[in-house]
């Protein structure tokens, strides 16, 4: 780009933007001197690590697993397929617990009801895998993608911040859409094709929640209500402590500091449940729960290093800005419109999914290209 003299006019400042050659003396020095800062200052790194500390406590205490199990065990027979898919979708907030707990449990429940166990496992798999990014609660993937989006948006607007709740409406609606579609396909197509189960394995009795588990969920529910009360007390009054400096909720520390609240609430609820059921007996057990959650982040830490360098080089070279300017000009000249443009982008993302399953890896590549383009087109 630098050799070809590629340049453009920044739509925000009106200044000329030229490609910076990172293979020059100055560029190489910057790459070497700022490599560590690019990594440690990469937004998704701290966001995901802090979120995982809290979710790790909730997961290691057994709170998430027991909560999901309670939904399935107490579900009425008439809606068991819906509940299997639904709990499968919700399970993704604790990473892979759906594959470990929900899928085999669904097979056992279906078998105990005289239905084909493979149908139950298929329904659970549809929820766990097909709905991996959908949820009614904020999970581990949301802070990660929000951080990547923030870094990409900063190419155009250095002060832009994407909150982990930015995708919540789509995520929440998708939860119910996937639930109903998964249940309908299971009941309409999958189970009839499997026929009646004629295996020799006798149905297993579904173990109900123990007294300790019920007590743990009750105490956790009380703690959750206390959290809700504290948050409402901080945002409902016009001069509430959790409102922003301008008195609004949109710019409040509750939303901008959502990851901190996620860490504090998830970890405290996990501690309450863990000590109630006896999983946690000393403070070291809680620390172990946090430590175990980091074991799943090893590959993420490697990915983030290279993603951080890619985004930094993209920004330093001005390729991100110039690609966004030219891409936006092309799309504006085509006059496609918002809805067709979004549909085309969804189809393109779906095509990429066939070759790259990791959401973080995919968005680390696509985000720095498409987010600036959409921003220059006037879409947030």
Q: Please, how many domains?
A: 2
Compute the number of helices.
Answer: 17
Q: What is the string of SSEs from the N terminus onward?
A: EEHHHHHHHHHHHHHHHHH
User: How far do the termini sit from each other?
Assistant: 28 Å
Outline the structure in words.
The protein is mainly alpha-helical and 380 residues long. It folds into two domains: 97 residues, no CATH class; 265 residues, no CATH class. It contains 17 helices and two strands. The protein has a two-stranded antiparallel ribbon with strand order 1-2. A hairpin with a 6-residue loop joins strand 1 and strand 2. Helix 5 runs antiparallel to helix 6, helix 5 crosses helix 9 and helix 15 crosses helix 17. It is globular. The mean pLDDT is 85.
Short characterization:
The protein is mainly α. 67% of the residues lie in helices and 2% in strands.
Kindly list the characteristics that best describe this protein.
single chain; 380 residues; two-stranded antiparallel sheet; 2 strands; globular
């Amino acid at each position: 780009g630098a050799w070809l003299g590629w340049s453009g006019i920044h739509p925000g400042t009106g200044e000329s933007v030229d490609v910076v050659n990172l293979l020059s003396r100055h560029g190489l020095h910057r790459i070497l001197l700022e490599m560590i800062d690019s990594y440690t200052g990469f937004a998704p790194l701290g966001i995901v690590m802090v979120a995982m500390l809290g979710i790790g406590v909730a997961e290691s205490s057994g709170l998430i697993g027991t909560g999901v199990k309670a939904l399935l065990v107490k579900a009425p027979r008439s809606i068991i397929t819906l509940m299997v898919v639904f709990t499968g979708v919700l399970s993704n907030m604790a990473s892979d617990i759906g594959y470990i707990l929900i899928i085999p449990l669904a097979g056992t429940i279906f078998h105990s009801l005289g239905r084909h166990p493979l149908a139950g496992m298929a329904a659970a798999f549809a929820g766990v895998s097909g709905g991996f990014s959908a949820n009614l609660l904020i999970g581990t993937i949301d802070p990660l993608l929000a951080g990547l989006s923030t870094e990409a948006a900063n190419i155009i607007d250095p002060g832009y911040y994407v909150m982990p709740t930015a995708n919540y409406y789509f995520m929440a609606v998708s939860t119910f859409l996937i639930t109903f579609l998964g249940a309908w396909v299971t009941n309409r197509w999958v189970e009839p094709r499997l026929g009646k189960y004629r295996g020799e394995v006798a149905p297993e009795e579904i173990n109900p929640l123990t007294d300790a588990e019920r007590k743990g969920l009750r105490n956790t529910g009380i703690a959750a209500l206390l959290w809700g009360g504290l948050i409402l007390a901080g945002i409902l009054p016009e001069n509430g402590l959790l409102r922003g400096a301008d008195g609004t909720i949109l710019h409040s520390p509750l939303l901008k500091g959502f990851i901190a609240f996620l860490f504090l609430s998830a970890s405290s609820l996990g501690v309450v449940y863990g000590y109630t059921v006896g999983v946690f007996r000393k403070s070291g057990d809680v620390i172990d729960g946090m430590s175990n959650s980091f074991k799943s982040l090893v590959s993420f830490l490697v990915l983030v290093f290279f993603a951080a360098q890619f985004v930094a080089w993209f920004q330093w070279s001005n390729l991100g800005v110039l690609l966004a300017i030219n891409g936006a000009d092309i799309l504006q000249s085509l006059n496609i419109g918002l809805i067709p443009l979004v549909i085309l982008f969804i189809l393109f993302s779906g095509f990429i999914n066939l070759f790259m399953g990791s959401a973080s890896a995919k968005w680390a590549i696509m985000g720095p290209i498409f987010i600036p383009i959409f921003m220059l087109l006037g879409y947030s």
